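Our preliminary data section would be incomplete without showing what the modeling component actually yields. Below, a chain of 277 amino acids is followed by its predicted structure, encoded as C-alpha cells that our downstream tools consume directly.
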Amino acid sequence: MVVNHINGRQSENVKMSEKQLLEVIDNCRRCHSSEYAMWTSGGHSVDYQHIFLNAKHNSTEQINFDCLRCHGMFFKGSVGDLVEPLNIKGPWKLKDAKMATMPAIPCMACHQIHQDGMPQNRPDYSNPKATFYQREGAASIVYIYDRHDKSDYPVKELPGLNLWEGERKVKVSDDLIMRNCVQCHAPNAQHQAGTGDDKTPRGVHEGLSCTACHLPHSNNARNSCTSCHPAISNCKTDVTKMNTSYADSKSPNNIHFVACTNCHQVVKRKMGHEFVH
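Predicted structure:
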C-alpha cells in the first residue's frame, strides 16, 4: 500500500479481519486508556456469548442475519456460521467457542482509524477568545461501520431520523453524534417512536440528544439529571428521586419517554389552561 501510494498507483483498499481488529484494540487502549476503561464498564463492551447465547431473548425473538448489523459488524460470515440453531427453541451454542469472549461492538464500530480532515493546529495565543472556535467538533471523529459494503461513514453523511408518534412528528435533536446512535437504536420500518430499540427522547425530554445525558464511551447517565436540573424540577420535586427509571429500574415511567402527566393528573381546566396537582 505504501509503495503504491508513493508511486501514485491506485490499489485496492485493505480490509482487516475481525481478529486483526481485535489486535488493534490493544493498541487503542495504550493511548486511550480512559476511553477504553469507560467502554469496558458500559453496555457496548458486550461480547458474543452475552448476545447470542441469551436464552430469554432468543426464545422470544429468533436469531436472524440482521443481528450482525449491530452485534457483530466485523464477523466475516453469516449468523448461521456463528451460532446454532436458528430457532426459538435452543439450546444455543456458538460454532466456534473462541468467539464467546470476543467483543461484538469494538471501537471500530463507531470510529475509523484514519479520519478525514486536517491535523489540529495550535490556537492563537494572542487571542484567547479564539481558542474555543478553533477546536473541531467531537462529531468529526465518529463514524459508523456498515458490514454490508465494509465501509466507514462519517456521521455528517448519515441522514437525520424522521420519527413519528402516531401521526405526530417527533422533534429529534440535530446532534450529529445522535445520528450514529439511531443506526442501531432504531425504530421499526414505519419510524414509530418507541418501537424496535428506539429510545429517542419524548415527553419532557423531547428534542434532547442522547449525548445530553449519556457519556459517549461508558453510556453512563448517572449525572444526567443534575447536569441540567438544579436538583428540582418545575414542580419543585427532586428529579433524582422522582418515580422514573432513572431512580428505579422497575419504574413504569421510562426516563426517555416520561411526561408530566405520568406523575400528575389533570384536575380541572380554566380559561384554556390546565391545572395539575
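The chain has a mean pLDDT of 88. The radius of gyration is 23 Å. Preliminary results of this kind motivate Aim 1 of the renewal.
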